[in-house]
Specification:
Layout: E1 20-25, H1 29-39, E2 45-48, E3 69-70, H2 74-80, H3 89-94, H4 97-106, E4 111-113, E5 118-121, H5 126-140, E6 143-145, E7 148-156, E8 159-167, E9 170-181, H6 196-203, E10 208-214, E11 218-220, H7 224-227, E12 232-242, E13 245-256, E14 260-262, H8 264-278, E15 283-288, H9 295-308, H10 314-317, H11 327-334, H12 347-358, E16 360-367, E17 375-380, E18 398-400, H13 414-429
Parallel strand pairs: 1-2, 1-9, 2-6, 9-18
Antiparallel strand pairs: 3-5, 4-5, 7-8, 8-9, 10-17, 11-14, 11-16, 12-13, 12-15, 13-14, 15-16
Length: 430
Amino acid sequence: MLSSFFSPKLCPMNKQKTDYDIIVIGGGPAGIMAAGQAALSDKRVLLVEKMERLGRKLRITGKGRCNLTNDTTIDEFMRHFGKNGRFLKPAFYNFFVSDLRKLLDQNGIATMVERGSRVFPVCESAPRVADALSNWLKKTGAETSFNTRVTGLLIEDSAIRGITVNRHGKTGQLTAQSVILCTGGKSYPRTGSTGDGYTLAKEAGHSIKPVRPALIPLVTDGDTAVRLQGLSLRNVTASLWVDNKKQAEELGEMLFTHFGLSGPLILTLSGQAVDALENKSAVQIVIDLKPGLDHQKLDARLLRDFSEHAKQQYHTLLHSLLPGKLIPVCIAETGIPKDKIVGQINAKERQCLRNWLKDFRFTVTGYRPIEEAIISAGGIDTKEVQSKTMESRIVKNLYFAGEVLDIDADTGGYNLQAAFSTGFLAGVSV
C-alpha cells in the first residue's frame, strides 16, 4: 500500500485516516519481531528497510552460525548488560529464551544448546534463520518496503504522525498512528547499521549516550601479537587491568592477530577496555596460560617436569607446556637460553617461567574501528524510554527497540535476545 507514498503534504491525523497503524523502521531482529507482533494484532503494519532485504546483519552473526540466545536465567541475562540490565527486565519477562526457541521451532528452525549455554540453530546457518523470520513476518500480514531510507520523523504536538522517506531517489511521507524505531547501532555499516536512528531520535528530542564500539578487537603495543598471528588459545584466562588495577577477568578462547588480540574472551573485555582508553587510562590485558593451576601447583608441575626431563634442552621441554608458536616468544620473554639443559635451570629461572605462564602481558594502545565492532555501545538514553512498553517519554506513540538503545552485553547470545525481546515488547505495546 505505497500508493500514498508521495502525499505532498501531511494532514492532521483527525482529518485523514493514516496510511498505516504502525510503521517499523529497520528490518533487523528487533524490527522483524516488532512488525510481526504488531501485525498479529490485526494492525496495518509497514516495515521500512533501507537495504534490499531483511536481516542483513543477522545473516553474518556468530560467524555465520547465529548465536541466537543463551539458555540461562533472566537475572543472569541482566547481569551481562551491566548498569542498564534492569531496564530490560520487563522485555525479558514478556519474551524470553523459551519463547524465542518455540517461535523459531514453529518456523522450521530447531535449536540446540552448546558450551557456555549458547543457543544455536541445529542447521548452524544464520541466513536460514533470517529467511525463516522473514517468512514468518510475511505470514503475519505485515507489509515491507525495501530500499527505502527514512529521512525524518513527522511529529506534531509532541506525538508521532509518520515518517519522511526517500525511495529510489524520490521523497515522500507516510502517516501512521505509531512508529517503532529499530535501526540498530553503528557497527557493520555495510549491513545497514550506520547510526541513522541516533540522528532521528536526537531530532525528536532524545539524548544520545556517546556511541562507541563494543565487542571489538583490541590493538596492542609491540610485535608479539604479530609474531603469534593466527594462533588461537582455548581455556585460558584473560584479565583487564586499568591503571594497574584489575577490573575484570574471563575464561575462554582468544585469538592473536596482525594488530593485537581478538576472539570471544577479548571481545567480552573490550567494552570496558574501550571506555578506559577513552578516559586516557593505561590498559593492559594479562593472559594466564595455565588457569587451572595456581602458582604453587604450577611450580610443583615444573619441578616434576624438570626432574623427569633433566637432560633435555629448554626449548624441547616447552613443547609439553605450550603451542609451538608460543615457544619462541616464551624463550625471548623469560630470557632463558633455548638450548640450556633443563637440569641446569636454576630456581630463579624456573620462577621466571612460572610467572610468565601466569602473567603473559600486553599493553593495549587502541581498538579497531567501530565498523568492525560486533555491536556498538551507547545510544538512546534508556531513562527517556518506558521500560514496560518501550515507548518514548518525550514523543507519544514513538517506540524503540534493539541496539539503537543504550544497551549492550558481552558475547554469548545476550544482545540478540535483547533485540528480539525489546522488539516483541514494542510490537505488542503499540
